[in-house]
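Notes from hallway chat w/ T.B., transcribed later so I don't forget. T.B. wanted the structure written out for a chain they're using in a teaching module, and asked if we could keep both sequence and structure tokens in one place. Agreed to drop them here.
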Amino acid sequence: MMSTIIVDDEPLAVELLINILNQINDIEVICQCNNGREAVQKIAETRPDLIFLDIEMPKMTGFDVIKALSKKSIPMIIFVTAFDRYAVNAFDVDAVDYVLKPLDPNRITLAVERARSRWLKNNLENSAIDEDDCKRKDDVPERFEPTDREKNQARTLILRDKLVIKDAGVVNVVAVSDIDWIDAAGDYMCVHALGRTYILRSTMKQLMEKLDRNLFVRVHRSTVVNITRVVTIRAHQKGGSTLVLENGESLRVSRNYRQYVSNLFSHR
């Protein structure tokens, strides 16, 4: 039975999440917290296996909660939030999953399954370590390949005009032509397409090698845009400019790319 704490300042969201979790076997909600400070205290006291953690809360965000915890007492984390812009940060803290509101029971079930897989593996590894300490090496299981972290990290593969994003056994097939823009943070990429955001593990260089350079162009060190989505270009007095996309998104063009982007559209 995985012990679980819910941390969210929205009572309706907490109630819905509890109702969903009550339908899932082998998971027990032991506490509910409506703010970050209470969460830090309860997590330290109860040492849960898993927390469902909101991000934008008054005074103390979900990331502040994680920073306040001892590294040895940080449980598995499933972020539950209404905002997709923190997804890359969530991967940086090794979150099990990142679920967007409004909550979908099937999506929560998938997140719990991912947590259970990691939980079971950690228990097996801990058992193996204990046996090794007791010099019963014959009973130590072989090392798992690949690791859960590797499984949970998104990987990509381009198949003709499709972008295939794999994440812990879940495969999302995204038409390249549906991609509006892409932003990067280190080895993680956020692919924005048809109102959704997909997280994958890839460098900007690796992804650009697979995309059509006539369709996707860099407008910033960490931003790529589908130029067919651009409807307006607004120049800034101090250099740089802003692109406005069909969906209303505004993307900053850095000074280094301003002239290139300007020339690109002047020839269209």
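Follow-up for T.B.: The domain at 153-266 is CATH 2.40.50.1020 (OB fold (Dihydrolipoamide Acetyltransferase, E2P)). Might be a good example for the class.
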